[in-house]
TrEMBL record:
<protein>
    <recommendedName>
        <fullName>Glucosamine-6-phosphate deaminase</fullName>
    </recommendedName>
</protein>
<feature type="domain" description="Glucosamine/galactosamine-6-phosphate isomerase">
    <location>
        <begin position="8"/>
        <end position="231"/>
    </location>
</feature>
Length: 248
């Protein structure tokens, strides 16, 4: 697996942001949309900050950018401060010139019976846009990518899932206690992620060192969904030294 290790997350995030900007510009010059799969959480925050800076200082335009976020809690109101809609607005969308109609984030307000058709339509929309040029990923301590928790199938599509207890514990600070963290989420599947033309998984800090070791060097298994990435030829791991510290 191609693994690149940077001294710290800021240098790594800078490199990833430049890579994203190159894709946007290249597609722009072809008169085509750049279709980006985006993640939330702490990991990509600096990438988004760098992209905002490039927009402000270098005129990087997002007019041709179409985005699909990996996941959203369920249920979740978009105007709730813990929603991934709020996260994306705050960290990226409110600060760039993206066309709002090009933003897609799974809808946490659906009635239960509407979820399955909505998820199919989400997949279809990605296809209609020409597929994901790049999918950005973080990794959870359960080995989840998106919210594909242990047990997820390698060919899974966008669907409603149950969050692992550890995932809910890790989110408890944002919600003021684990009991307030939703038990479910809507997430793109492993199969959805695999269809992206390029995948970049980022991880920073010692907290991620042991799961990164498993993801990169461990046996491929549904009990650590990120190990499925070992089967992809389009994936790059971008790490800081701390996250890479247990790799042999
Ligand atoms: C977020 C997502 C999750 C996170 C993962 C790591 O959209 O899909 O897989 O990437 O839980 O979260 P952080 O970056 O907060 O450590």
């Amino acid at each position: 697996l191609p693994v690149t290790v940077y001294p710290d997350e800021f240098e790594a995030a800078d490199k990833v942001a430049k890579y994203v900007a190159d894709i946007i510009r290249k597609k722009q010059s072809l008169g085509k949309p750049a279709v980006l799969g985006l993640a939330t959480g702490a990991t990509p925050v600096d990438v988004y900050a760098r992209l905002v800076k490039m927009h402000r200082e270098e005129g990087l335009s997002f007019k041709n950018v179409v985005t699909f976020n990996l996941d959203e809690y369920y249920p979740m109101q978009p105007d709730s401060k813990q929603s991934y809609v709020a996260f994306m607005d705050e960290n990226l969308f409110n600060h760039i010139d993206i066309d709002r109609k090009n933003i897609h984030i799974p809808d946490g307000t659906l009635a239960p019976e509407d979820i399955a058709p909505y998820c199919l339509a989400y997949e279809q929309k990605i296809e209609e846009m020409g597929g994901l040029d790049l999918q950005i990923l973080g990794i959870g301590r359960t080995g989840h990518i998106g919210f594909n928790e242990p047990g997820s199938a390698p060919n899974s599509g966008t669907r409603l899932v149950t969050l692992d207890d550890l995932t809910r514990r890790d989110a408890s600070r944002d919600f003021g206690g684990k009991e307030n963290v939703p038990t479910k989420a809507i997430t793109m599947g492993i199969g959805t992620i695999f269809k992206a033309r390029e995948i970049i998984l980022m991880a920073w800090s010692r907290k991620k060192a042991s799961i990164i070791k498993k993801a990169v060097e461990g046996e491929i298994s549904g009990s650590v969904p990120a190990t499925y990435l070992q089967l992809s030829e389009n994936v790059k791991f971008v790490l800081d030294e701390d996250a890479a510290s247990e790799l042999t």
